[in-house]
Amino acid sequence: MRLIGVLSGDIVASRDIADKRKLRGAIDTGIERLGQTLDAVGTRFRGDAFQLAVPRIEDTIVAAVLMRASLLEHSPSRRQSWDARIAIGIGEGEVPAPEDFINADGEAFVRSGQGLDALGQGHQRLGLFLPSPQPDLNLLIQFADDIISHWSHNAAEVVRLSLTSDHSQSELAKRLERSQPTINRRLGAARWSLIHAFLEFTRERLEAMK
C-alpha cells in the first residue's frame, strides 16, 4: 500500500463567525480548488470542519497552505480573519472515491485526526505528522505557520493565485485590476519568497520519503 497524505482541519474561533453560510462556502471553495489543482478528494462536515486525502505526499504542505490562503482570502475584514488549524498526516492508505469518503480509514487518516487533536491544545495552526518525526521539518513549519497566520486577505489572495497559476506579477496586476507595485507589496507582505522556498524544500523532503 502506498503513502498518501490526509489533511484534517477545523476553523479557528468558528463560534465567533456570524455568517456561517459564507464560511461554509469558503471551505467548499477551498476543497474544490484542491481537487482541481492537486487531485485531492475531500469533504466538509459539522459545518466548520473538513478533511481531504491528497494522492501525492509531496503536495500535502502546498495543499494546506493553499487551503489556508483560500480561507483567509474570503475573510470579511482585516479584524475578522478566517483561518484553520490543519494537521497533515502521512501514512499508508488509499485515496477514497468521493462517494466513499465518509467511510475512509487507514494510517494516514488516523495520524491526521490525532494530529488535529494535538494542534487544538496549543497555538500552532499547521502541523505535519509523519511515521518518524523529523524535528527540522517541524521547526520550519512553525516559522511558516507564524507567517501565514499574519496574512491579510489581500496578501492571501495573491499567494493563492501564485500557487494555482503561472501568472507573472504584471499578469496578476491585470487580473486583479491593481498596479504591479501593489501586487509586489502584497507578495512582500506575505513573505512570498520565503514561503515559496519553504514549499519547494518541504516538497523535496517529502518526495524523498516515497
Q: Layout of helices and strands, plus pairs?
A:
Layout: E1 3-11, H1 20-38, E2 41-45, E3 49-54, H2 60-73, E4 84-92, H3 107-119, E5 126-129, H4 135-148, H5 153-164, H6 169-176, H7 180-189, H8 192-207
Parallel strand pairs: 4-5
Antiparallel strand pairs: 1-3, 1-4, 2-3
Helix pairs in contact: 1-2, 2-5, 4-8, 5-7, 6-7
What keyword list fits this structure?
single chain, globular, 5-stranded mixed β-sheet, 210 residues, 16% strand, 8 helices, alpha+beta
Overview of this protein structure:
The chain has 210 residues and is an alpha+beta fold. The protein has helices spanning 20-38, 60-73, 107-119, 135-148, 153-164, 169-176, 180-189, 192-207, and strands spanning 3-11, 41-45, 49-54, 84-92, 126-129. Helix 1 packs antiparallel against helix 2 (60-73) and helix 6 crosses helix 7 (180-189). The protein is globular, with a radius of gyration of 16 Å.
**Average pLDDT level:** 93
Helix count, DSSP H or I runs of 4 or more residues: 8
Helical content (DSSP H or I, runs of 4+): 40-55%
**Sheet with the most strands?**
5 strands, mixed
Overall shape: globular
Rg, alpha carbons = 16 Å
In brief, what are we looking at here?
By secondary structure, the protein is an alpha+beta fold.
